[in-house]
Structures are given as structure tokens and as C-alpha cells.
Design brief:
The chain is α/β, with parallel strands linked by helices. Helix content is about 40%, strand content about 20%. Helix 1 (about 25-35) packs across helix 2 and helix 15 packs across helix 17. The chain is elongated, with a radius of gyration of 27 Å.
């Protein structure tokens, strides 16, 4: 079994994604989580480009990673000066990381039009940069920026650039599809053409502009690359980087490569969700291997077959990567999800059981009222537990009030007050916000947090409202769907009512109670 080294650049390339802004402490938390996950390299940032990354590396010196190698990033030195005189290189060395990664120009168009220098001078820049860092006793990863585009345009020169880095002592030559425009067969073909000239370890750095970041990375590994650079969840500029969580899944389960240590593969989903939580960018439900719906089954035929033999509609055991199987209730599924969920709750029923018929009737009644459980798995589990008398509430509502106000200045404002009883103690809480639902959410959490501290790690990630009876206008029933997430998982809840605040409250309570129920099972 060949070993592939996983080089994570979530903290540098991933942070360039629209909507992501890591704090220094965010970066420290993610770096330590990646270390725990068994990633081989963690690229922490560019210390010469901003104070935040400089502070991050200073903090990491006080408590180094346990197994992963921390890498600092930069470009080749500036033209017209030596590497030893480049201020960026002083910051790079002061970061005191065992590994440095620098990128250099490979595409002749970039050398002439962007760097504004000669082709020969660019080769000298590469040699001087790598040589200086090797003299400083660093492991050097050389990222050949735009390698594949450069090779297509001028193969002889593109090859010269990576051989210059190799001759200067680079430990790994990483071939970059920086614009994300190459196809897997192009990637594999070019690597086959050049690998006989390269004695250094080869790596791949792919972007996802054609949706091929993962495919191109896999093609590169099959062609001989032993280091894969990417980001968890595919975060990155434009369409993102190659998604490491998917790459690790495929290499480990389909292509017989060693990526993360075997005992760490089960943490893949939790790692992906932890990073998504810190980044405040939810993972799509349909995300391979780690997504909430990756092993979800809806059609009755599928569910029936899965119960007989899981291989019927699953390409692998979801537990290998820390995920789990889900059966979704809908008009397409019939009694099977109800039976399966009941069995999970230690209630033995089958299709012919009167309990199954009662459950199905109760479910159909809820759906007639406007509930839709296929998109609200957490509410469905709570519905089942309540119907089967397997549920004990974590708190009792005594009453709440929501006040909204619009000021002459145009600013909107809302305040919520709430009275609940939790663990035999009556509590009152109040909170305000720009909207009534958020104010209610904050007031509820404030009232519960002392009794249930784990709610600190939960947040609402989406809120959707659908009008069910449009002919009734503003008095119509609405269905509210709330999506929530913590560091390990995501879940959805539903509420239905003519009053949008009441529908939101129902979905909100389900979301909180499901989180507490989930935590109580640990």
C-alpha cells in the first residue's frame, strides 16, 4: 500500500474563499484539529503578508503540533534582490516552521507579463530562493504555479523551472493547476511526460473551477504524485480547492492508498464539520462521504433492500468515515422508515404491527397539517419518540413574549422574553436582536445555557419559510424549516402554524431538544 502525504492548506488557500475570515484563535483551533486528525502537513499562512498570520506562527511556536508538520508559505524572492535580503524571507524564517512552501512562476506568459522579467532571470530567482531556504535547514515544498497551463504553452520552459527548483534542493515539487482548467487525462499525460526527469517527490495542487479538483488530484496520484494539497470541504478562492475530505475518502477506500492513519479515518466527518463550524460555512447535505445526506435513503424499495443487505444501495460502510445511515420518511417510503426508527428506539414492530399502522396514520395526519419530515430528520425522530412514549422533555415552557418595533429612522428591532422551567428551576430570560426569531433563539439559549452548557457549540445555519395556502394571503399557514449545526453534525427541524412566530418556535424548540437528546446519548 503506497502512502500519500496529505498537505492541508485550509488556513491559507481556504481562507481566501468568499465569506471566510478566520481569527488567529480560529486558525490555532483548526491547526490543532487537523493535527489530531492525522494530516501530515498543515500550512498555516503567509507570515510576510499580514500581521494575523505572523501572530499565528508566534503562538504555534509556544506549543508545536504533535505529529503534523507546520508549514509557512511565501513566494519566490522578489526580482532584483537576493533571497537573504528579501523582507518576506526574514518573516518566513522567523516563523520557525520545519517546512516552508514557496510558489514560483512556471508559465512563460506570467514571467513576462506579470513578473515583468526574463525567462532566465526567473530561473535564477527560483534557484536562489530554494537554495537559501535549504541553507536554513528547512524542508522545502516548491509549488510550481500554473504548471499545467505553462507546460501546455511552453513545455521545455515549464520543465526547466521545476528542474531549477530540484537542483537547488527542493524536497517536493508540487505541480499546480492554479486556474483549475485542466482535465484529468491532461494532468495524467503531462505527469507521465515529465516524471522521468524529476527525482524529487512530486505533489499535486488542484483548483475546482471545472468541478474537477478531486478528479485531477486522483489522476495525479495514480500518475505518481505522493503529496496532495487541498482544503477540507473544498474551501478556496473562486470555485474552491480540491476537497481533501473527498480525496481522503476515495484514496483510502477505493484506490488502496494510505492517507490518514487507519484509526483516524473514523474522525473524517467530525473534522469536516468542525472546520465548517469555525468557518461558518455549512457543508452541503449531499457532500460525498461526510455530508448529512451521503448515506440517506428515501425510496421504500431502497430502504427495504438496505435492511436486507446494506451493499444494495451503499458503496461502503458509512461508519468507516464517521458518518451514519439515515432513512427518510416520505410518501415514497411508506412504513419502512417508521419501523427502522422504532427498532432503533428498542421498539420491535414490523409492517403488520398495529403500532406501525398507528404511526403511519399519525404521520399522514401531520403531513396533512403541512408538516414535511423528509427535510426535517430531527423533528421526525422527536415525533417518533413522543408517539412511542420514549421521550422526556428537557425543559417546559411557561410562556414567552416577542415585541417588535420599527423606529422613525427606519431601524427595525425586536425583543423576546421567556419563562421556562428547567430541572425543577424556574428561569426568566430576555434578549434583543434585529429580528424576532433570533431574539427568541437568544433568549431561550440564555435561559438554558447554565443547565446545558453544550448549547454554546450549536448554531442555526439556515431558516426557511414557505407559505402553504397562498389563497389565504397573510392568514395562511406557514412551514418553517430550521437547519442547525454543531462541531459534529447537522440536523433539520420543522414547525407549522398560521402564526410565523409560533411555527418558528416549534422548529426552534425541536432543534434545541434534538441537540440535547443527541448529547445525552454520548
Amino acid at each position: 500500500m503506497n502512502k500519500v502525504f496529505i498537505y492541508d492548506t485550509t488556513l491559507r488557500d481556504g481562507s481566501q474563499a468568499e465569506g471566510i475570515s478566520f481569527t488567529v484563535l480560529d486558525k490555532v483551533k483548526i491547526a490543532r484539529r487537523l493535527d489530531e486528525a492525522g494530516v501530515h502537513y498543515v500550512e498555516g499562512g503567509w507570515p510576510g503578508s499580514n500581521p494575523k498570520d505572523k501572530e499565528f506562527f508566534a503562538l504555534m511556536q509556544k506549543e508545536p503540533l504533535k505529529s503534523a508538520k507546520l508549514s509557512a508559505f511565501s513566494s519566490t524572492r522578489r526580482k532584483g534582490i537576493k533571497a537573504e535580503d528579501d523582507p518576506n524571507y526574514k518573516e518566513l524564517i522567523d516563523a520557525k516552521t520545519p517546512v516552508v512552501c514557496i510558489f514560483g512562476k512556471t508559465w512563460d506568459m506570467h514571467v513576462i507579463d506579470v513578473l515583468k522579467t526574463t525567462l532566465e532571470d526567473n530561473l535564477e530567482i527560483i534557484r536562489d530562493s530554494v537554495s537559501f531556504l535549504k541553507k536554513k535547514k528547512r524542508e522545502v515544498v516548491y509549488d510550481a504555479e500554473h504548471f499545467f497551463d505553462g507546460y501546455k504553452n511552453n513545455p521545455a520552459y515549464a520543465l526547466k523551472t521545476i528542474l531549477a527548483a530540484q537542483k537547488a534542493g527542493a524536497d517536493t515539487i508540487v505541480l499546480c493547476d492554479t486556474n483549475g482548467g485542466s482535465l484529468p487525462e491532461e494532468i495524467a499525460g503531462i505527469i507521465d511526460e515529465i516524471k522521468s526527469h524529476v527525482t524529487a517527490q512530486l505533489g499535486i495542487h488542484a483548483h475546482n473551477d471545472c468541478g474537477l479538483g478531486v478528479a485531477n488530484s486522483l489522476a495525479a496520484v495514480e500518475a505518481g504524485c505522493l503529496q496532495v494539497q487541498g482544503t477540507f470541504n473544498g474551501f478556496g478562492e473562486r470555485c474552491g480547492n480540491a476537497d481533501l475530505s473527498t480525496i481522503i475518502g476515495v484514496l483510502s477506500s477505493k484506490l488502496d492508498y494510505q492517507t490518514l492513519p487507519k484509526n483516524k479515518l473514523k474522525d473524517l466527518k467530525d473534522t469536516a464539520y468542525f472546520i465548517a463550524e469555525v468557518a461558518n460555512l455549512p457543508i452541503p447535505d449531499f457532500h460525498p462521504f461526510t455530508g448529512h445526506s451521503a448515506f440517506a435513503h428515501k425510496a421504500g424499495v431502497h430502504i427495504d433492500a438496505i435492511l436486507k443487505n446494506s451493499k444494495a444501495y451503499e458503496h461502503l460502510d458509512p461508519a468507516v468515515f464517521g458518518n451514519h445511515r439515515r432513512f427518510i420518511t416520505s410518501e415514497l417510503a411508506g412504513k419502512m422508515p417508521l419501523i427502522q426508527k422504532a427498532q432503533e428506539l428498542a421498539v420491535k414492530i414490523d409492517k403488520k404491527s398495529p403500532e406501525a399502522k398507528e404511526l403511519l396514520q399519525a404521520l399522514q395526519k401531520k403531513e396533512l397539517e403541512g408538516y414535511q419530515f423528509e427535510g426535517a430528520d430531527a423533528s421526525f425522530e422527536l415525533f417518533m419518540k413522543k408517539h412511542l412514549k420514549k421521550y422526556k422533555p428537557f425543559f417546559t415552557l411557561e410562556g414567552f413574549r416577542v415585541h417588535t418595533e420599527k423606529k422613525a429612522s427606519g431601524a427595525a428591532w425586536a425583543e423576546a422574553t421567556i419563562h421556562i422551567e428547567v430541572k425543577g428551576e424556574k428561569r426568566f430570560s430576555a434578549s434583543d436582536s434585529v429580528g424576532p426569531v433570533e431574539a427568541l433563539d437568544k433568549a431561550l439559549r440564555k435561559a438554558l445555557i447554565k443547565a446545558y452548557p453544550s448549547l454554546e457549540h450549536m448554531r442555526l445555519t439556515d431558516y426557511k419559510v414557505r407559505v402553504l395556502d397562498t389563497k389565504d394571503g397573510t392568514s395562511a399557514k406557514v412551514r418553517v424549516l430550521i437547519e442547525s449545526q454543531d462541531e459534529h453534525d447537522a440536523w433539520s427541524t420543522v414547525g407549522v402554524h398560521e402564526n410565523i412566530i409560533e411555527a418558528s418556535w416549534e422548529a426552534l424548540v425541536d432543534s434545541v431538544e434534538y441537540k440535547l437528546l443527541k448529547d445525552s446519548k454520548k
